[in-house]
Amino acid sequence: MRFAATKIAGVTLITLEPHEDERGFFARIYCPEEFSAAGIGFTSTQINLSHNASRHTLRGLHYQDAPYAEAKVVRPMTGAIYDVAVDLRRDSATYGQWVAFELSAERGDALFIAEGLAHGFLTLEPGSNVLYQMGRPYVPGQARGLRYDDPTLAIDWPAEPAVIGAQDLNWPAFVR
Q1: Is it the case that residue 175 has pLDDT exceeding 90?
Q2: Percent share of the chain, pLDDT over 90
Q3: Which of 56, 63, 82, 132 is catalytic?
Q4: 132 is known as an active-site residue
């Protein structure tokens, strides 16, 4: 795996280093030792799958506050997504800023998102299945979120959502 830092500390782009032969390829997608060597203290404790039947399905922006905050590795297993992380850590130099990456199953890339950041994505292809490796189990009742279209954040989504859940439409705006 290759790890590339982004403009927001705690958000890392992860790309595969496939070993190819006549059968196809083999690649490691998670190894605690490699994460640690890259300066990422992350252990996967729960794995979730998000199936998204339609193109331009939006999920997010989601997070959980401390002490339930979740670090995660997000990776499309089929299709492609526009993946967004928003820094909600008040003591961070990038508080209120966001980064986004197009992740695809074909390339096998992923995004590590540390605790204290909100996360969301927009599917770019129908049938996009997204695997989440979570750093701690989900705690019912602790889910939080922000409006995906909040003008203060001004996230540059590549398209208007065609499918979005009622809860995601009702999250509050970002407050500095």
Answers
A1: no
A2: 96
A3: 132
A4: yes
The answer to whether 109 touches 75, Cβ cutoff 8 Å, is yes
pTM beyond 0.85, yes or no: yes
Is 62 designated active site? Answer: yes
Q: What is the CA radius of gyration of the chain?
A: 16
Q: Which residues pair with 19 in a beta bridge?
A: 26
What structural domains does the chain harbor?
A: 2-169 (2.60.120.10)
d(CA 145, CA 154): 16
Segment 41-52, tens digit of pLDDT: 999 999 999 999
How far is the C-alpha of 65 from the C-alpha of 176, rounded, in Å?
Answer: 16
d(CA 152, CA 122): 19
